[in-house]
Amino acid sequence: MTETNTRIRPAAVTLTANAEARIARLMADAPEGAIGVKLSTPRRGCSGLAYSVDYVTEEAKFDEQIETPGGTFYIDGASVLYLIGSTMDWVEDDFAAGFVFDNPNAKGACGCGESFTV
User: Residues near 6 by Cβ (< 8 Å), separated by ≥ 6?
Assistant: First the structure.
């Protein structure tokens, strides 16, 4: 009988402590029926793809899941290839707050920062 070795692969996206804390806050205030927060990369903007973070009410078959202390973080299955190796952070200053992405796959971005290309 052949032995099968299973290798656990790293998550496509690394979440910083600030991102995990923000996900926990979002889930604490989530609308009824939300089971997690989901990152996707819809086609938008002048460069082609944008980052979108939304509540999710049901799991999709190919979504990647990352368990965080505050709840489940999903990555859209169709977006994973654009996000492998990325780091997601939550940044706040006096004038703005939002998720910030360090994506090694992004080859360019539009001038306003709304979208990116791979």
Answer: none
User: Model pTM greater than 0.70?
Assistant: yes
**What are the tens digits of pLDDT across the range 52-75?**
999 999 999 999 999 999 999 999
Residue 54 pairs in a beta bridge with 38
C-alpha to C-alpha distance for 50 and 94, rounded to whole angstroms: 24
Q: Closest Cα to residue 40, out of 55, 22, 18, 57?
A: 55
Give CA angle at 79 (5, 65), nearest 5°: 50
Banded pLDDT at 1 (limits 50, 70, 90): low
- Dmax over CA atoms of the chain, in Å, equals 62
Alpha helices, DSSP H, located in the chain: 17-28, 80-83
